[in-house]
Amino acid sequence: MVLKRYVTGSEETRKRIGAPKRLSYGSTPVEALDLYAAKAPNAPIQIFIHGGAWRGQVAKDYAFPAEALTRAGAHYIALDFTNVTQTDGNLMPMAEQVRRAIAWVAKNAASFGGDANRIYISGHSSGGHLGGVALVTDWKAMGVPADVIKGAVLLSGMYDLKPVRLSARSSYVKFTDAIEDALSTQRHLDKITCPVTLVHGSLETPEFQRQSRDFAAALKKAGKPAELIVGPNYNHFEIAETLANPFGVAGRAVIEQMKLRVA
């Protein structure tokens, strides 16, 4: 299974580049992140938000993109956060944790040699959704600049929750009209301040493809810098693996957005 490759790929990555620094961004044990540091000082920062249908996966199993990014001169951060099985089906705590983590990174970047003016994010599946939510955050209210995020590469996410609310996920996610609206990024395009690259595989289910396609079209119509990239012959899980390859579908998108040079 591809998910097992995430785990083994992450284990192999840690064997090559070393274990990450584990840093807390909040008061509970799950509110922590894995930092894989670049060697250069004042390096740009890539923050990854993992998927798992909002109910699974952990940061340590998403180390596999770290080697390519740190070699290219960027810090790579993988976030941990709660899941809906721990919040009685409520998505809002996850969204708020991701927001607090990004704000923490911005406020503390200098402490680990990061450049707070060059923070980028990426996410896959439900992490792509949470990444989209981060883009429409009132960052000034959290004590960081409104344009704290300089770019996003979102893989196979969901940007309008109405169809998701009608799907099988409603059996464990407790949607309300307010949550559906607040966490549907496509309804708040005016708040987006950075370039957004949407990525999906050509072998994904039609709804995942449509979500990325429609969000990209909506962004462009609103005058926002946006790009849609389709990975030929990749399914929903395989497309995330391309983050580990600086010449892969998603890996190249991240490298180019951050203006990095491949070592």
Describe the structure.
Helix 3 (92-108) packs across helix 4. It is globular and about 45 Å long. 47% of the residues are buried. The protein is an alpha/beta fold and 263 residues long. An 8-stranded mixed beta sheet has the order 1-2-4-3-5-6-7-8, sandwiched between helices. It has a single domain, classed as Alpha/Beta hydrolase fold, catalytic domain (Rossmann fold, 3-Layer(aba) Sandwich). Helix content is 34%, strand content 19%. It has helices at 2-17, 66-71, 92-108, 126-135, 161-165, 177-182, 206-221, 238-241, 249-257, and strands spanning 21-24, 32-36, 43-49, 75-79, 114-124, 149-155, 196-201, 226-231.
Overall mean pLDDT: 98
What's the number of helices? Answer: 9
Distance between the termini: 30 Å
Domain tally: 1
- Provide the helix percentage: 25-40%
- The biggest beta sheet, please? 8 strands, mixed
The strand count comes to 8
By secondary-structure content and strand pairing, the structural class works out as: alpha/beta
The order of strands across the largest sheet is 1-2-4-3-5-6-7-8
Range of strand content: 15-25%
Query: Under CATH, the topology is which?
Result: Rossmann fold
CATH homologous superfamily label: Alpha/Beta hydrolase fold, catalytic domain
CATH class categorisation: Alpha Beta
- Model regions low in confidence, pLDDT < 50 over at least 5 residues: none
Q: SSE order in H/E notation?
A: HEEEHEHEHEHHEHEHH
Using the CA coordinates, give the radius of gyration.
17 Å
Second rung of CATH, namely the architecture: 3-Layer(aba) Sandwich
Shape: globular
